[in-house]
Amino acid sequence: MNQKTQFVLSGLRPTGRVHLGNYFGAIRNWVRLQDSYRAYYFVADWHALTSDYADPQNVRQATFDAVADWLAAGLDPKKCSIFVQSEVKEHAELHLLLSMITPLPWLERVPTFKDQQAQLVEKDLNTYGFLGYPLLQTADIIVYRANFVPVGEDQASHLELSREIVRRFNNFYGDVFPEPQPLFTESPKVPGLDGRKMSKSYGNTIPLSAPADEIRALVMTMFTDPNRIRRKDPGNPDICNLFQFHKLFSDQETVARVDHECRTAQIGCVDDKKLLAEIMVENLRPIRERREAIDRDPSVVWDALREGNRSARERAAETLEQVRRAMKIDYPEFR
Question: What is the pLDDT along the chain (335 residues), one digit of tens a residue?
Fold first, then answer.
């Protein structure tokens, strides 16, 4: 099968402006995939409500900011469908139908269910929405009859529940859905300013479209080799945040030079931070300029979403017609 006849589906919760962890972990790969697949990328605003249901007032602005950065990063509405989950009601209908056939223990055994309950103790996550979010994720994927979901190798197990549900559905009703396969993509680990995983919950992020002076200021706060106390002490780039960012942004010659100069104490951490900051500012300039243009004309975002919503509804409606027919709950008499 020609790749452009195959479907790819991915989405992210609307948490506002994209940070470098989001970009290298997902968005950069989305941009590449839109040239080879029929790609659907969505803002998972219903998923945001599984943990933020008590205060959803920021979801709309966060949706705008996320999609503005996706477009600035290179997603092209002429090459892919960018849409809002809640604007395609078929997600909800398929989620309901899948809930009728999914054994409860399948949801209770999902590792992240207990893990996130333990981590987010300040929120009451004893809700059906939180328990059932993996089922909604399954509906998100299969309502487009997606062939592939781009994931890192460490995330492949997340798809297995979806594949089990598809097998169960097809066993009851016939082969309606393809089993979604993981599409392994490069997802380099991006540390935060403090060395932990980059995450807004840790307050250690660098926004993808941040102004140049903000990038410079944030880089100057980065943790470095904890064992390098004095300027004349040799450093170890392997345990230094700065070097991880050099590998993401600098050319091979600069990476090799910084590695050598750090180990031999020829460059200090402050000077290295200044060097890295300028490299990052220049590398991110095209994205930053495109985001500034979008902020001057916000209709670019809403127009892209309007067309993406339409395209997504069209594909999802076709799927639900097949589902209702397979389940014998279509009523042609009412049409």
Answer: 445 789 999 999 999 999 999 999 999 999 999 999 999 999 999 999 887 887 889 999 999 999 999 999 999 999 999 999 999 999 999 999 999 999 999 998 877 655 665 555 566 677 888 888 899 999 999 999 999 999 877 677 778 999 999 999 999 999 999 999 999 888 788 999 999 999 998 899 999 999 999 999 999 999 999 988 888 889 999 999 999 999 999 999 999 999 999 999 999 999 999 999 999 999 999 999 999 999 999 999 999 999 999 999 999 999 999 999 999 999 988 87
Cα-atom radius of gyration of the chain, to the nearest Å? 22
Report the Cα 330 to chain-centroid distance in Å.
Answer: 35
In whole angstroms, give the CA distance from residue 279 to residue 44: 33
pTM (2 decimals)? 0.92
Cα–Cα distance for residue pair 104/55, rounded to 1 Å:
28
**Rounded Cα distance, 256 and 243, in Å:** 10
Q: What residue ranges do the domains of the chain occupy?
A: 3-190+298-334, 211-283
DSSP 164-200: HHHHHHHHHH-S-SPPPEEEE------B-TTSSBP-G
Which homologous superfamily is 3-190+298-334 in?
Answer: HUPs (3.40.50.620)
Convert 291-321 into a string of H (helix), E (strand) and C (coil).
HHHHHHCCHHHHHHHHHHHHHHHHHHHHHHH
Alpha-carbon distance of 67 to 70, in angstroms, equals 5
Kind plus residue range of the DSSP H or E element containing 83: strand 80-84
211-283, superfamily in CATH? Tyrosyl-Transfer RNA Synthetase (1.10.240.10)
3-state SS class at 39: strand
Classify residue 316 by burial, with Cβ atoms within 10 Å: 0-12, 13-18, 19+: buried
Q: What's the Cα-to-Cα distance from 333 to each of 156, 329, 330, rounded to whole Å?
A: 43, 12, 9
